[in-house]
Amino acid sequence: MRCPFCSAENTQVTDTRENEDGDIVRRRRRCLSCDKRFTTYERIDLKMPQVVKRNGNRVDFSHDKLLGSISLALRKRPVPAEGIEAAVDRIEAKLLASGEREIPSEQIGELVMRELKKLDKVAYIRFASVYRAFEDVNEFSAVIREVSARPRGRPPRSAG
Known about the structure:
Blueprint: E1 11-18, E2 24-31, E3 37-43, E4 50-52, E5 58-59, H1 63-73, H2 81-98, E6 102-104, H3 105-119, H4 121-131, H5 137-148
Parallel strand pairs: 4-6
Antiparallel strand pairs: 1-2, 2-3, 4-5
């Protein structure tokens, strides 16, 4: 680390502390040339992949846009804000874990659909209708049948 006062390259760490969340490290340093002290901060710098739109354009990933899309689908639905944030966090974690520099917007859309399907079936259908650009009632019906189907592995209810 270069000294901000004399530009010497030899500095010594005198104290290291993490913040409460453990995501930032504060280091007190002393320059071995001029003996002045200064503080540096280290934090994780995770780079989200670029989003490749359907038309080929590339844009920076936007947490706010993802949150807005999911929130719009869930508008007036009984899903707590914590559930929405958790879904966004899971999607972002999957994108980071992919290790890709670029990711197609369609892949993000599919991740959103999976999360919405778990959170709220109506929101899932709303999002699917826009995302998949439904053109007739039959496409709506197919998605409604899909979410209305009995979960796998569950026996049918007995009449009695």
